[in-house]
Q: What sequence folds into this?
């Protein structure tokens, strides 16, 4: 790995990445702004936004940590037939399949408790579940790509993969959520 454990080495590796990721985050805000009308009309969707993007980033971060550990142990293989790699991807999507319906139900209940349920519970749960499954698949792809890029660029995946995954999942989370909303609502 090319990054040394010094302030200068870490700054040299991370500063350009963090600048690019800050610009990427602006994209999330721009997409969110274009769907302001939906958010005001359906408050349960407004409740879903931070939870969806946060949960997708968390799932990607869990996978990134597992891949980074395997990288440092020398057991990471980018072969599609690697059972550990495939198992981690399947586990991530499986976790999403159990978590996101609960996220949708919780968002609807919270909206009900605060007097703002304009959508039926089944719609909010369906939006959260479908969005979550798509986000999980994208988080897996982004995590694999970021880990592989870190490997190829001789960067420490502990330093670069999680920031990349969480920021990209923020943007994708907003895009996917509102793509699903346009289809289902």
A:
């Amino acid at each position: 790995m090319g990054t040394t454990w010094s302030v200068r080495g870490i700054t040299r590796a991370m500063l350009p990445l963090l600048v690019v990721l800050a610009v990427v985050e602006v994209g999330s805000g721009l997409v969110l702004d274009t769907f302001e009308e939906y958010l005001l009309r359906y408050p349960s969707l407004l409740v879903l936004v931070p939870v969806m993007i946060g949960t997708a980033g968390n799932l990607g971060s869990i996978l990134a940590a597992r891949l980074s550990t395997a990288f440092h142990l020398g057991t990471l293989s980018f072969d599609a037939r690697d059972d550990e790699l495939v198992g981690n991807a399947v586990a991530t999507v499986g976790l999403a399949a159990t978590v996101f319906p609960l996220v949708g139900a919780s968002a609807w209940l919270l909206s009900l408790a605060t007097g703002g349920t304009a959508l039926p519970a089944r719609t909010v749960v369906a939006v959260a579940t479908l969005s979550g499954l798509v986000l999980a698949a994208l988080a897996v792809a982004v995590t694999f790509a970021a880990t592989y890029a870190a490997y190829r660029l001789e960067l420490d995946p502990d330093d670069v993969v999680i920031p990349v995954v969480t920021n990209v999942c923020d943007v994708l989370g907003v895009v996917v959520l509102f793509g699903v909303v346009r289809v289902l609502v």
Observations:
- The chain has a mean pLDDT of 88.
- The CA atoms of residues 44 and 58 lie 21 Å apart.
- The two ends are 48 Å apart (CA to CA).
- DSSP finds six helices and no strands in the chain.
